């Protein structure tokens, strides 16, 4: 596999369209494997993104009293914008939109902006249930962010670089998932956590009428849902670049391997959505800081020793 | 820096200052907090333009996270508990204005008056600036910093371990303790009743 190269300027648009297309496909898959809609025919389920889009676009606008319109709008558009900002540093096969020297830190900074995005989605409408959801998310973010950061540190240490393209190149011999399986698992879990997905959907929980999503009127809700799926897509693609060798693979073109591997991780995340119970932040915090964080640090220690031994040899 | 670079730099500078002013103009805690965050993001962008990509992106990362935590405390500790009503961000207006203007003048004078050193050698490649910044900041102090970071982290973890068993949300342990204190431990799983259906004598002794 040749080194990853920066693609032409128009690839920004191509990357954005691909993320949105993959997000819609993930939505269709989610509808297909949703155990709650078994009674609906498969074809109707697969078209759910179409029905949902038209329903939300036609939905009557609702307004809450004394809402902070500016901040509510920011909360609605930011998840999708953040996903698109992240994908700029995620390679597709041997092409990438931008290859900054600190691509990994950029991805991390953007996932931190999600703290603001989800909290604003909760704060903006001036309504109790979304507000509770926004605070729940910050509690959840405190739980997952440190394990996520140390999981991101592991491939950077192994590759000796903060550049995503360097990390992909460093996996020519061995995919990092073999060397650091715990970091890979923690990263994929954190992707679910910052996308409010499955067991991490407590901030948008049914017990608070949808939480941060509760007061989002039609088009805004469409944007947030699209952003959620886009974050899952980009997170899965980043997992492929960091841990699963990027576009490496036999016979097929590198871009095809990136797409296949991303689709597998994405499908796993989507399938697990309704099959794991939701974790409350305090339970998540206990597991994350007392178990996952120490284990991730031990993983990082092992990776660092291997890297130092490799550098010395 | 190219002409386009200078234009972006100037635009980010204007955003940084304007967002900084907005912190004191808006009448909402949430807006003030995220105006400050926007100001820091613009400063991070300036650092990226100065080829300090790592410091710039880390500034964005740290400051956005910090503001997200700070907004909780701002809303929690302010006079208007729900934080949803408009309120003035300004207290002790004259003193604050004097301090702000004085600090700005001092820093601006410093930036203009300090004899900046000339660059030695060629402009380093972007990847080298991260390493150079790390060595300039940490360099000789690296063993000390590594040691301190381990101590700091151990302190956080031990503080957590000490705090968690008696934590606010520790329902399981607390329920088990109180049940044990009341001698109900073995009967608890039967819902406080005996197998014959009669209420246990301690069942309603709360």
Protein described:
The complex is a heterodimer of chains A (313) and B (206). By secondary structure, chain A is mainly α. Chain A has helices at residues 11-33, 42-46, 48-58, 69-87, 103-123, 128-159, 164-169, 176-179, 181-194, 218-243, 254-272, 281-312, and strands at residues 5-6, 95-96. Chain A has one domain (5-312). The termini of chain B are far apart. Chain B has 206 residues and is an all-alpha fold. In chain B, helix 1 (3-25) packs antiparallel against helix 2 (29-49) and helix 2 runs antiparallel to helix 3. Chain B has 7 helices and no strands. The longest helix of chain B has 25 residues, at 53-77. Classes of the chains: A mainly alpha (313), B mainly alpha (206).
What percentage of amino acids of chain B are in beta strands?
under 5%
What is the rounded Rg of chain B? 28 Å
What is the beta-strand fraction of chain A? under 5%
Provide the number of structural domains of chain A. Answer: 1
Give the helices and strands, then pairings.
The complex is a heterodimer of chains A (313) and B (206).
Chain A: E1 5-6, H1 11-33, H2 42-46, H3 48-58, H4 69-87, E2 95-96, H5 103-123, H6 128-159, H7 164-169, H8 176-179, H9 181-194, H10 218-243, H11 254-272, H12 281-312
Parallel strand pairs in A: 1-2
Helix pairs in contact in A: 1-10, 1-11, 3-10, 4-5, 4-10, 5-6, 6-9, 6-12, 9-10, 9-12, 10-11
Chain B: H1 3-25, H2 29-49, H3 53-77, H4 93-113, H5 126-137, H6 142-163, H7 171-181
Helix pairs in contact in B: 1-2, 2-3
Task: Give structural attributes.
heterodimer, A: 313 residues, mainly alpha, two-stranded parallel ribbon, 12 helices, 1% strand, globular, B: 206 residues, 7 helices, 66% helix, extended
